[in-house]
Fe(3+)-hydroxamate ABC transporter permease FhuB
Amino acid sequence: MLDRQAVNGRRSFPMRPHYLALVLAGAAAFMTLWIVQHLLPPAQWWQAVFHPARQDLAQIDVHFAVMPRLCLALLAGGALGLAGVIFQQVLRNPMAEPATLGVSAGAYLALSLAAIWLPGLSGSSRQAVALLGAVAAMAIVLGLSWRKGLSPLALILAGLIVGLYCGAFNTALILFQDKLRTLTLWGSGSLDGQDWLGVRDLASQSALVVVLLFVLRRPLNLLGLEDAGASSLGLSLQRARMIVLALAVILSAAVVSTVGVISFIGIGAPMLARMAGARTLGQRLLWSALIGATLLWFADDCLQVIDGALHVSIPTGAAAALFGGPILLFLLPRMRQMSRPVLSGGGRGFDRRTRAPLRGILVLVACLVGAVLVSLAFGKGISGWQWSGWRQMQALSFWRGPPMVAAAAAGAMLAVAGSLLQRLTGNPMASPEVLGVSTGAALGVIALVLIAPGFGRPVQILASGGGATVALGLMLLWGRRSGFAPDQMLLGGVTLAMAFTGILAVLLASGDPRMIGLLAWISGSTYLVRWPDALSACLIGGVLALAVPVQRRWLEILPLGDGLARSLGTPLASSRLAILLVASCFTGIATLVVGPLSFVGLMAPHMARSFCQSRPLPQLVASAILGALIMVLANWAGRVLLFPNQMPAGLVATLLGGTYLMIQLARRPR
């Protein structure tokens, strides 16, 4: 069962769940009292909470701002903790929660679309829209992973793809709809309200779900058993799963529609409860809800203190992701391995069949040349679609050439980095995007821009490559402890992405004008790329590519397992470090060009492996060509689809790549 998998019958946390909840509640209560005493003397607290004097602004502030915020923190944190346990119990997956399953992203996207098409929605209508989006996202995730038996790896990968896809679509809406700029900050999780309506709505929905959970407690317990055992006890598995999952989706949608997207609580609270010794389902439901409530209450109080001292308004959800990420990174190595690695010593993740490499590569080169010609010559203008002649194409190449060349170089580098990571870890699902390497590169660039904005491209490349190296080094360190188990690697990537989302939301909330340019870069914009930048990316990528053939033998042997690699005389530490550095440099440079958004590093190696190649060098060459082809087409599509507006190439690649990966994930396994 899930709890036995997670804790193995022992506590791995130095504090029991009730002590942990009491400590968090005590710290949060102390900070709340400290905040209130700056507004009112203690003698007026009772009156301010229950019957505020209309002429006393301080009492009104406490009654209509401080208290609703406190109640929202408790309700939202408790609901997210409860939803996380339900998802984990029904799906038997310790990583399942509203954010990792794409449920929160689906609800938020639905609210964004409603803000454009139906701007006058009331509170109840907003909740219905959020619920519709959450249900749609959950249905897609279940549909994608159904043929894989709802395995933990397939389920979380489907949730990540759906979540990133919804996030990319929402980013596209924000770029072209000014009215959604304010929704961005609210969507980062804001508990700041001026009335009790949100508290009333969230409390009523949470109470209804709790009552239904009490009624369904026996089926919910049986869902933690194996299917055969649960069926032998008379449980209708499919019906019970759908009903209980619907309750978790309702809770998630209610939180998103009331306070926005809040990360970490849904996965952090159940994890803390399990590690503190909550073994039975009842214990996990109770203590996850209480720990989630007190954890969000404490985090929000900390933000109010920071706001009062520094006068910086930070969304609560963003801060939860920012602080929750390091906590998860600390707890991750202490969690018991949740599933076996995809690959053991035999290297089953890579198909050893050889196909005609030269023929396949020539076909891909022809496709790339055709895509380059289409990108340069075919486009949309004031008079409609047109194909440019040779002279006109030469003139247009000054504007269209640099973004196209830069996008192609970035796509090739991300594809090669993805192939290197897959062979390094022995995990076919590894990529710079999924493992958080692109996130690390982006954090390196953001830190440089904020700390020392005057540095040029060489220093930016070093910062980006350094961030990618640190991120990948951390991932390999955690992966080594679990034998590179895919779920552990994915959880680490989710954690890094969560921290990055929190940092980005905090920076956007700061009002710093430099964040506007960073937002465009994060979306993968190549508008401002000129020939020096494009040629520099090609040159550096070409120099790095010279190191790949030297590593050919290592790339052939490492996926076969440590034992066989040692017997063949492969220096494991130095070979892994060398491959790690090359992959990090590729990722860092590519991230500088197209930002951290895209699925190219996962999609191109997969296409190369299924298209024609399985041996290292042919696969790397095919991956590079496919990555360049994808980004050239994405750059062209971003230029013409919304003419005269343009979509960032990285954003288009994310949408295209997400669609491709969803189709591949939904296919019946061979």
Observations:
- Residues 390-425 form the longest helix (36 residues).
- The mean pLDDT is 80.
